[in-house]
Write a structure and sequence with these properties.
Helix content is 42%, strand content 24%. It has 322 residues and is an alpha/beta fold.
């Protein structure tokens, strides 16, 4: 601190460094413990090069931010926290989730006020995910659209397919491979609408492709959402109200095969038909053609049998007359 004359008056003037050092002292004196805090991660800000993570933490009320602070998870802690979080929730740490975390408050003269996150309680986030999933279900039921897509009738022979998937994914390759095996018997036509199928970006990506398909929905018999090989991590996007509502209201039957066998997501619950894997979807569609072909063969045999009986009776009658 120094004394300076300002407008003819001697005043005490502090440097910025002195002020920030004073804040450091206050923080260190009054916030010695670690605290359990709950907040939303608006942006994770993970840096693979260093391994450190700098999440933006907020608390909202009626959609408006009422508190905001920067968090820090050092690389050594991030590896442990991430591993445990995935094991418990089946999800990676990502933007937009609610977390309960243990942290200590620190103030740095250069970087400002931060929360050094030491641990995250996955069970809290798991409970929040379950609550948000149920909220989505309740909203769709309140809007009377939860079973709307299920009410649509899948055509007897669904030949024209709109597929939302990733061209390079194993799931899509398995699906096409199975169709090709039956190509000489049944020909199905498809158009791929490539999309991100898991994680933070999937909601926007899938929604955009559904909008494109909707513009041309008269040309399609069914819409398929298929993915495989990605495990159960990153599937919370399928509980998102935006995707679920789009599918529930879709004018064409939607069939899902997103490659997992745990609790069904809301997207799978509102879809016309839910199957586990892309291969299951292929078998389901091809099975409709096989059943139809078998029925034709049965009916053809019946017609032939009845025709032979008629001819036999006619010949018998002719012989009796003659």
């Amino acid at each position: 601190m120094e004394k300076l004359s300002i407008s003819g008056e001697i005043r005490s003037v502090y440097t910025l460094f002195e002020l920030t050092n004073s804040i450091v002292s206050v923080i260190n004196k009054n916030y010695k413990s670690s605290y359990w805090i709950k907040a939303e991660v608006t942006k994770l800000n993970y840096y693979p090069k260093t391994g450190h993570c700098y999440p933006d933490l907020v608390e909202k009320e009626s959609g408006k931010i009422k508190a905001q602070l920067k968090g820090i998870i050092w690389a050594k802690d991030y590896i442990r926290i991430k591993s445990e979080f995935i094991r418990i929730t089946g999800e990676n740490l990502h933007d937009g989730i609610q977390i309960l975390f243990l942290a200590r408050l620190v103030f740095d003269p250069v970087h400002g006020l931060s929360l050094i996150i030491q641990n995250i309680e996955p069970s809290y986030t798991l409970g929040e995910m379950a609550r948000e999933k149920q909220d989505t279900i309740n909203k769709l039921k309140l809007e009377a659209v939860f079973n709307k897509n299920k009410m649509l009738k899948i055509p007897l022979l669904p030949r024209r397919l709109a597929i939302i998937s990733v061209e390079t994914s194993k799931g899509f390759a398995d699906f096409i491979s199975k169709l090709n095996e039956y190509k000489s018997h049944f020909t199905l036509f498809y158009k791929l609408y490539p999309s991100i199928l898991q994680g933070d970006s999937a909601v926007e990506s899938i929604s955009q492709q559904l909008k494109l398909i909707k513009k041309a929905h008269k040309y399609y018999d069914v819409v398929l959402i298929i993915r495989g090989g990605g495990g159960d991590i990153g599937l919370s996007c399928y509980d998102n109200i935006r995707i679920a509502r789009e599918i529930a209201n879709f004018p064409v039957p939607v069939i899902t095969g997103i490659g997992h066998s745990t609790n069904e997501t809301v997207t799978e619950l509102v879809a016309n038909k839910n199957l586990i894997t892309p291969t299951d979807v292929a078998f389901y569609l091809l099975g409709m053609f096989e059943s139809f072909a078998q029925q034709i063969e049965i009916n053809a045999n019946k017609i032939l049998e009845n025709t032979n009986k008629i001819l036999e009776n006619t010949n018998k009658n002719i012989n009796e007359i003659c």
